[in-house]
């Protein structure tokens, strides 16, 4: 896996992934997200991918899965994440809460590389969920 990051000006950079996607990164948040926001977005994408796939394999009728993520950072430099909270809102038809709980737990403890990497680095990650039934 490769990515290149090219400085544009001031605190604005353009990242290009090995698969050819470009992301603007900007410390001033005028041209794109800040780098630490992208870490949270990566975590959210990684764990959401797991949760949805696990639920689909369990034959759950998932309509929507939203991960709301918020984090605390250290007050001093380096201002690393100290705690991250991931709250899933999973919407579906005739969903079994036990399957959602299992999917979230498996992602957090076994599958999500981003989550496991951050936790091994000392970040406390708290996962929660709610299930919304639709017809």
UniProtKB/TrEMBL annotation:
PANTHER family: PROTEIN YHFA (PTHR34352:SF1)
Pfam families: OsmC
Domain of life of the native organism: Bacteria
InterPro entries reported in the protein's UniProt record: KH_dom-like_a/b, OsmC/Ohr_fam, OsmC/Ohrsf
Name of the featured protein: OsmC-like protein
Parts of the chain that traverse the membrane: none
Coiled-coil positions: none
